């Protein structure tokens, strides 16, 4: 094999890897609902053409490469980062979290998405069940909803008393100052969508069997109580927007732009730098000429259906 042949093979391999990468991204994009024709017409009317797909992927891959640098820096410096994602149901929090974690090491960057509290947890200090999910040095934790449930769904749906809500607003700023004083970088995002956009996204979920699981009775009630949620959000932002941990609002009617804007902004909030890396070389495999690979029973193999 000549040097030029090796170069061509390497180029073909690289193109194949890039194709696989794009296939993975397209697969995520295909999670967009398969709509009925009528809803599709409405969606196209409400949403003018978003950022072009190829430009979106180019920007996303660029940002994800920076996230890998951030991950290396976090691991190297033992930094602790908490990112909170809040917003109305269907606002796109999960979508941006997927794109952030997509290429990162799950041992370094993990997602905390807590279920409803158990009977035992309801008797604990309110923040207690969240504290156990906070990062150690060298970790990033993304909260897909957080302790701000008390200021939102618990308040609107009547799961918390007026006294508990007042106590929450009294305690939260000091709790977050404690986190920051302990060395945690705390970043808070609120994903903002319009009334019409949420209604459209809910309709899309209703008509997409692969996304109906995302609609809970609580989600449907959020449509009924839109104005109550708006008032709760406004008071939450006013009373918990502190210099040590300010809120950042993400305009999220356009999902693709929201993802790019949020990831770019997140990177700007953290003073990460390039860290030294040892050069990686693949060691030679030990070859034993007397070794014969054992033939395994056919029944052990997964059938090749595809």
Fold and architecture overview:
Helix content is 50%, strand content 10%. A five-stranded parallel sheet has the order 2-3-1-4-5, with helices on both faces. By secondary structure, the chain is an alpha/beta fold. The longest helix is centred in the first third of the chain and has 27 residues, at 3-29. It has twelve helices and five strands. It is globular, with a radius of gyration of 24 Å. The protein has one domain (41-273): 3-Layer(aba) Sandwich (Rossmann fold). Helix 4 (93-101) crosses helix 12.
Short summary of the structure?
By secondary structure, the chain is an alpha/beta fold. The chain contains 12 helices and 5 strands.
Binned, the helix content reads 40-55%
Please trace the helix and strand order, writing H or E for each element: HHHEHEHHEHHEHHHEH
General form: globular
Number of strands: 5
- Helix run count: 12
Taking the alpha carbons of the first and last residues, their distance comes to 34 Å
CATH class: Alpha Beta
Can you lay out the helices and strands and say which pair or pack?
Elements lengths: L2 H27 L7 H10 L6 H25 L2 E8 L5 H9 L7 E4 L6 H4 L5 H4 L7 E6 L8 H4 L5 H20 L2 E9 L2 H12 L10 H8 L1 H15 L6 E5 L3 H14 L38
Parallel strand pairs: 1-3, 1-4, 2-3, 4-5
